[in-house]
Amino acid sequence: MVTEQPETSPLPKIPPLPLLRAVDRFRSFLTAALRRTAPAPVALLDIVQGGFLMQTLCAAAELGVADALADGPLRLDALATRVGAQPDALARLLRPLLAEGIFARDSDRYRLTSLAEPLRADAPVSIRGILQFYGSSDHRAIWSRLAEAVRTGDPVTEQVLGLPLFDLTRKNRQFGEMFDGAQTSASQLTLRPTLAAYDFAQYGTIVDIAGGHGRLLIELLTRAPRSRGILFDMPEVVAEVPAHLTALGLADRCTVEGGSFFESAPTGGDAYILKHVLHDWYDADAGRILRTVRAAMPDTATLLLIEMVLPSDNRRQFGKLIDLEMLAVVGGRERTEQDFRTLLSANGFELVRRVETAAPDNILEARPIRQ
Fold first, then answer.
1. Assuming Cys at both sites, which of 41, 133, 211, 292 could form a disulfide with 182, CB separation 3.0 to 4.6 Å?
2. CA gyration radius, the chain
3. Which pLDDT tens digit goes with each residue over 264-292?
């Protein structure tokens, strides 16, 4: 397990949500307007171009171009030597990225731009792990069977790679480490906006269900010194966490429990967090998880779901593509707010409110329905 110190530096300034939403609407309007004015084949080819550009970006991340430029600009030959690439081929790789403002070239030297910074492995918010996973041949192979997943409504990971996703991550550690890296990147991307959007310190005991290595819970406890925590995940996932908590000085405020959320959950919490859990499962299994948590919760506790929420209209949103990722890879789904209301109501909860964040995630606050 990678041991990470909690991020105790002040939260960076996050743009106001109304501004972010306005920019997103304006961008969507411009994109739609451009596509309406272009001939249909040209507009569709522009979408195809996005796939090529994504793979170009993934190749730059795999080569470590941003890391090589972290100490300052480099000439092409020096940069190629640093990343182990053929100079002419590297220049050709960087050419479309320069056009997008990802990297820049001043005279004969390449340098980082603000858009390139998150490609560094050691960036405060790095997306390198996401790119390495989404750009991998295994992930591309799964998406090449998307039509089959749509025909059947079932994931295709086992057909393509021989095992369901979560079994594969355990048995093929190369794939598992790549997947873990993507999860860590996603966590970094959403962590600070989540902390800024909601007052977790109001709860005495916070239970993080399927909390992995405890990154979210550790951050919460660091910023809420009066709160206590319980981290719950499969025994093999949390095996090394107690030593990490001791090293951070949190062992007296956080306990660790192993188990399956289909069978049990810790009792006695004031808030129960399910972050990026329910989207892995269709409604039947998601309902089983919710009922297990409900059985463990006091009637006065709060359930906090941290998930993407799909809009009910036709606006562009990343979650609509991640919904297809969940379909093809694990057989899960993203949900609208009404989907969450229905799912919660059927399994012992009432949705109280939805809190948007500056990241793609929302925080859905729910309370138990008393019997």
1. 133
2. 22
3. 999 999 999 999 999 999 999 999 999 99
Dihedral of CA atoms 339, 341, 344, 348 in degrees, nearest 10, equals: -150
Tokens found for residue 195? 């902390």
Q: Which two tokens stand for residue 79?
A: 């940069």
From 139, 213, 276, 279, the catalytic residue: 279
Contact 369, 351 (CB under 8 A): no
In contact, 127 and 119? CB cutoff 8 Å: yes
* 279 given a catalytic annotation: yes
Q: How far apart are the first and last CA of the chain?
A: 42
CATH pick for 197-368 out of 3.40.50.150, 3.40.50.10610, 3.20.20.80, 3.40.220.10: 3.40.50.150
Name the token pair of 307: 């998930």
Most trustworthy range by pLDDT among 16-25, 86-95, 181-190: 86-95
Q: Which CATH number fits domain 34-119: 3.40.50.360, 1.20.1250.20, 1.20.1250.40, 1.10.10.10?
A: 1.10.10.10
Question: What residues have CB less than 8 Å from 340, skipping those under 6 apart?
Answer: 305, 307, 309, 351, 364
Contacts of 363 by beta carbon, 8 Å cutoff, 6+ apart: 194, 197, 198, 304, 305, 306, 354, 355, 357
**Run of H or E including 75:** strand 74-75
Question: Which residues on neighbouring strands pair with residue 228, listed in sequence order?
Answer: 205
Q: Measuring CA to CA, how many Å separate 341 from each of 262, 299, 345? A: 21, 18, 6
Residue 219 CA to residue 240 CA, distance in Å, equals 17
> Tokens for 85?
């690439």
Residue type, 181: G
Query: Residue 38 half-sphere exposure, CB side, CA atoms within 13 Å?
Result: 14
